[in-house]
Structures are given as C-alpha cells and as structure tokens.
C-alpha cells in the first residue's frame, strides 16, 4: 500500500498531530487534521497553514533565461519588474497542457518555476529537453525546498509577527527573497485558496521551525482536503481534473493566461492559435445543481437526452451550501443559463450552467 | 474509540440493524461516520422500494467521497429518516440515534446471520 511514498520535511509533524494521511502525487500527505469543513472555514475566516512541500521547484538561470521561459510558457513575462509572479501553463506542441505553474521572475537571467508534485519528473525532463540551444542552466531544486502556504484574512498579520518582516510591502503575485537565519527564503503573496496569504519557500530545517512557530501562534493546520474545496470554490483548476496532457488551456477556459500575441514564439502557439480561430469544441464551465446530491469527478453531464460531458470536480460547496461542479461539456452547452443534468448513481439531477467561480475571491492587494 | 451498542446487529459493511417484530431499522455505525468524516448528503431510498440484503440501497457522502450503503436485510422500505435530508450531519453527531431507513422484513431470520456487538467491535479493531 505504501508504494515508496515520499515524505515531506513536515511529515513527522503531521503524524504527531494526528492527521489523516493519504497518497497524493507520489507523496504521503495530510488530508485533514480535524475535519475538512473546520479547516476550510479557518482559511476563509481566519488563517490556516498547508504543508505544500510536495510542490516542485525548478530554477532557470543564464543569459537566455527570458527567451527560454518565454518559449516554454504560454503567459507573457516580457517587461515585468523583478519580483513579479505569473500564473500560466506549459503546453505541448499540440496545445495539450504539460502542467500549470507559477513563474517567479528573479531577474531577466533567472526565473524560479513552481510546478505540480505529480508532474515534477515529467516537467523537468520536458523543460531540459526543450532547453537545448538556449544558454540556460536548468536545475531541479525540489529536494532542497520545503514550502508552506499561510492562507486566510489573518495570514499577513500572523506571518509578519512571527517572522518580523515587512510582508505588507509585498503586493499580490509578487515575491521577495529575505535572508533569514543564514539562508535565503522566498516569500510570495500567492496561494491556491481564493484568500489573501503567502507561500514561503525555505530549507527543510527552516520550514520545520516555521511550522512549529505557526502552531504555537494558533494557526490552524490544514490538509489537502480543504485545499481542494477552497481552490474549487473560486474556480481554480487542478492539474489532473481541469487540465491534462490532452486538455488545452483554451478548453479549460483559461485563455486569459495564453498570450498568443506576445513578442516571442512559444511551444504550442500554432495549435492554440488555430484552436482559438476555429473555436473550441468543448469547454470547462460551472454547473449549479438543484438539491444536495454531489457531482463527483467523472460523473456524466447530460442534456437533450444525451451525454454531453463529464464532471471534472464537484462538491457541496462548504461556503455556500450549494452542490456545484466544474465540468467539461460540448461547446453548444457551455452558455450561461443552459439547463443540464448530472447523473449521480442511478438518478439524474437537474442543474444550470453558471460561472465557475462559485465564491468570490478575497485577495488583498 | 468508536462506539458499539450491545442491542444491535451489524453488517461487515458498517451498517447497524435494530429488529423489532418484522421491522428493521437501519443506519450506519459510529465507526463508519468517523471514517467518512463530515457527512454532507445521504442518498436515501424511496418508501416502497424493495431492498435486498447485500445490495446497495443508497449512499452516504462526505465532503471528499461517496460511499455506497449496503442493505443488511431484505424487504420493503416503509420509512426513511427525512431529518437527514436537511441535516445529514446528524449522523456525525450520533450515528445510532439517526437511522436511515426502516424495512418491513421479508425474512425475519436474515438478521440473525449478522454480527453481534462483540464480533463487530472486533472487526473494527482489525
């Protein structure tokens, strides 16, 4: 059962704190410490902390760093100030998604890429392979870094107090590198919950000390269970559900991050430009169901008496109490207000196509 | 430790049964509610449905997952616990007080084959 799962630097803490552990992306990760609902609400209303040390980090350094990152990344980092962060995807030549990631611009000759745990090996191989001909050094630093995400309306206050740093100077989707306790620690105002908060990247030892201080300060430890319910409610995609090797960012309704007109060419551009011109044949949308039955990943979506798609993620929203889903449906059924139904076990539950943001984000700045 | 009540019978799929005459009251055990976590939806059968021992009769859903409910007995559903429609979390509060369905047994002897409290407690420890 254990099949060589990787333990993060905080694994012993999770076990000692009684977390329910489960495999995720090759790691043995905490799903919940108490209940998903309690932890979810802690992040929405106060502050919670996640161990996200399973995330991968890749550093791209060298004279061609800007050119290379522009080539493998669909978003446009051109002209960005140092310290800015971009969300976007790496795509295959055919437009399918290799991974979604954050790109931290250290400077024109250095970028820090944060990728999904389950994709570390795949991404690193793909990045290296495409680096041929570019004057860059690509380094997988995933084994060095521990990472915690401190999320919620009280995140800034608590983390500033614990670290004694001017984190209020960091704007949304920006980062700073601080020299703390003899090492460089990266702190960004980012997250995956729809709330204000920070992600902190440091050595394993630093990460353990920070975790312990956060616990002493009464910050709620949160597992991946509520990380998923939180990101889902604000319509953020999860690779494996809304994105995959055979799903393009346009199909995932993430076209705002695909800069087809940027000054440099990038892998997948031609296929994505063609798909945009011709229009997608399927697309991810939101569905709100009548009743409380819960649409789960893979459940069929029906309309006009036939199957027109499938649920990618679904929950009974903890923040709103409604049963909602993100689903991949055929284009003619993607319009807001379209009546659709989801098959849940033996019954079919009626619903409506809605915006896939089921709960409003509360980003601070 | 999960609670096990002495006066009930149990299925190894973690449902409990209370037999009174030819009526069986069915719910899920404290062990099951604990393993599931926050229960947010109970998919109940309809009154008049025929349920069959060993076969699925509905589902109980936590935030994270759906689990089939397996009927420990056979017969006709004569009552469902409507309180669970609006407050499925009652099962988390007390799994034994908050039953799911009542079945008019087609074979009263069927329940005798189920586990007693001691045997079920042992199963939960394994």
Helix content of chain A: 10-25%
**Major sheet attributes of chain B:** 6 strands, antiparallel
| Order of secondary-structure elements of chain A | HEEHEEHEEEHEEHEEEHEHHEEEEEE
Biggest interface, and residues per chain?
A-B, 18 and 14 residues
Which shape of chain A, going by the Cα principal axes? globular
Which CATH class of chain B?
Mainly Beta
The stretches of 5 or more residues of chain B where confidence is low (pLDDT under 50) are: none
**Corresponding CATH superfamily of chain B:** RNA polymerase II/Efflux pump adaptor protein, barrel-sandwich hybrid domain
What is the gyration radius of chain A calculated from CA atoms? 20 Å
Mean of all residue-level pLDDT scores of chain A: 96
Contiguous helical run count of chain B: 4
Percent range for β-strand residues of chain A: 25-35%
Contiguous helical run count of chain A? 8
Helix-and-strand structural type of chain A: alpha+beta
Please give the domain count of chain B: 1
Main sheet: strands, sense, barrel of chain A: 6 strands, mixed
* Uncertain segments of chain A: none
Q: What letter string, H or E per element, gives the SSE order of chain B?
A: EEEHEEEEEHHEH
């Amino acid at each position: 059962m254990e099949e060589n799962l990787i333990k993060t630097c905080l694994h012993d803490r999770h076990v000692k704190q009684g977390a329910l552990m489960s495999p995720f992306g090759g790691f043995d990760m905490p799903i919940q410490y108490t209940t998903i609902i309690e932890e979810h609400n802690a992040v929405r209303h106060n502050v919670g902390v996640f161990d996200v040390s399973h995330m991968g980090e890749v550093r791209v350094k060298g004279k061609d760093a800007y050119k290379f990152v522009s080539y493998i990344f669909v978003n446009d980092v051109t002209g960005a100030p140092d310290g800015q962060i971009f969300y976007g995807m790496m795509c295959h030549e055919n437009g399918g998604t290799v991974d979604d990631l954050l790109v931290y611009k250290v400077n024109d000759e250095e970028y820090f890429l944060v990728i999904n745990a389950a994709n570390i090996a795949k991404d690193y191989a793909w990045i290296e392979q495409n680096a041929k001909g570019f004057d860059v050094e690509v380094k997988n630093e995933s084994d060095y870094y521990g990472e915690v995400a401190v999320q919620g309306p009280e995140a800034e206050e608590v983390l500033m107090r614990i670290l004694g740093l001017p984190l209020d100077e960091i704007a949304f989707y920006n980062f700073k590198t601080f020299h703390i306790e003899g090492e460089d620690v990266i702190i960004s105002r980012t997250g995956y919950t729809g709330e204000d908060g920070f992600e902190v990247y440091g050595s394993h030892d630093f990460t353990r000390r920070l975790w312990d201080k956060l616990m002493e300060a009464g910050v709620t430890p949160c597992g991946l269970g509520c990380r998923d319910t939180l990101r889902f409610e604000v319509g953020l995609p999860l690779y494996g559900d809304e994105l995959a090797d055979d799903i393009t960012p346009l199909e995932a309704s993430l076209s705002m991050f695909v800069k087809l007109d940027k000054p440099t060419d990038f892998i997948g551009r031609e296929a994505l430009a063609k798909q945009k011109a011709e229009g997608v044949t399927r697309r991810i949308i939101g569905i709100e169901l009548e009743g409380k039955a819960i649409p789960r990943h893979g459940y069929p979506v029906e309309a006009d008496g036939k199957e027109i798609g499938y649920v990618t993620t679904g929950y009974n929203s903890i923040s709103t109490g409604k049963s909602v889903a993100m689903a991949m449906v055929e284009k003619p059924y993607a319009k807001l207000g379209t009546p659709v139904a989801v098959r849940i076990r033996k019954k079919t539950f009626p619903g409506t196509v809605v915006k896939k943001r089921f709960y409003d984000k509360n980003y601070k700045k | 430790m999960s609670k096990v009540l002495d006066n009930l019978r149990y299925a190894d799929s973690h449902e409990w049964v209370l037999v009174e005459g030819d009526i069986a009251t069915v719910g899920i055990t404290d062990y099951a509610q604990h393993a599931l976590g926050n229960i947010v939806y109970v998919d109940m059968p309809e009154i008049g449905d025929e349920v069959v021992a060993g076969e699925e009769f509905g589902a109980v859903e936590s935030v994270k997952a759906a689990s089939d409910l397996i009927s420990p007995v056979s017969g006709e559903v004569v009552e469902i616990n409507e309180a669970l429609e609006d407050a499925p979390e009652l099962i988390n509060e007390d799994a034994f007080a908050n039953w799911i369905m009542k079945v008019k047994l087609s074979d009263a002897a069927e329940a005798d084959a189920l586990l007693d409290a001691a045997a079920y407690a042992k199963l939960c420890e394994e």
